[in-house]
Amino acid sequence: MRRSALASIASYIVETRGSVISGQTRDAALRCLFDLIVAAAAGHEDRGPLAVRRAVGLMGQGEVPVWFSGVASSPLGAAWANSAAASAQDLDDGHRLARGHPGAVVIPTVIPIGQAQKASWEQMLTAIVIGYEVGITIAAARRSYGNTGTWGAYAAVAAAGALCGTSAAVLEHALAIAGETAPNQLFASAPPPRDPSPEGSDVKEGIPWSVVTGLTALRLAEAGHTGPRNILESVRHYDLPDPIRFGGDAHINHVYHKLYACCRHVHAPLDALLGLIADHDLADADAITVETTSGALRISNLARPSNLTDVQYSIPYCLSLAMVRGQDGLMHLRQDVLNDHAVETLAQRVSLVLNPSFDARFPQETLARVTVRSRGRDVVSPITAPRGEASDPLTWCDLRKKAKVVSESLGAPLLGKALDDLAVNLSANRLTGLSDLVGCNLDQMAVHP
Question: Domain named MmgE/PrpD N-terminal: which ranges (predicted)?
Fold first, then answer.
């Protein structure tokens, strides 16, 4: 009899959780760990994460740190709150084939569950790799696009199940429950034309709730609840290889990391424009034309966004912010980027056009070319891929600079020093300083040394 996809995935989790991660995969996992903590610090004070922390008592009491708050909750509550902070600013990592953000699901799941299970950091690092592998494998097999929340629960089950020592039989049901009860994101994930386009909100891609769904699914399965274990055999929804093969080049080795607090579709146009700004005087830009992909055209792209989520999903507004305020202002978005008349005026002069040759290479690549008309002449960028892709990854120095800019924007120099110390340790393969950092109160780190 043919082995089911979930049986193969459950076996992979059980067989891998006792291994020690090494080499390229270990370095990738350490980078993801550091980068995600920076993203969580950046989003800590945003409206959505604040609301989750106010509501976190719904998940019970416990002694697991809610990152950067100085308070504790249950493992489920901490994972929910930490994921909300990590995904708020859209600074978290992503994967090209998954077309989403595994880190904001997996790492906020692993650390609270690992702390509750008294797991070692080595065990947690292995669970991180497992969570990325399972989540990305399933996301990449979807026949239609779905935001991260639609597949993130699978990753949460895999990572948490690895740490909890859950049996393969129970994992099959947990994964099935997670897949069938995950956030559906029917409005936000809908293909164009969308009438109306979804209003920007703190729900975003449903990532924090997919963490809750995944962890709840695991507990339900452990209590005897069943799920449809043939869910991944649905040919309408999934196209998984038969057999599924694990153990090769891990998916975590192919994530991208972000330098701007916005949707990945915005990054290639931004990098193309910033290259032009570096080489030309574009102070009097009359118009900006962006050649891009169909994926970039499906986000909201408002010239006058009313909230930070809509800023994150607007190529015109983010390009105009870069022209008016410079690139560092895009690494951590604050409320003061809204209602900027100069930015809104320029954003209305940004045009987006589909480039069929770029679109043929999407989603494996997200390319853009930008033309700026200034003083009667056109300045054209090269065809540009976003910085931080797996093919040209950010260095540890790049990641440290990102942490520094975020810390300065938060007005927390002590946080900046702590993050830099952590980066030094992790880049030297030393798993030290993590627990103290995430357990601290961000407000107390705003004091100058």
Answer: 8-234
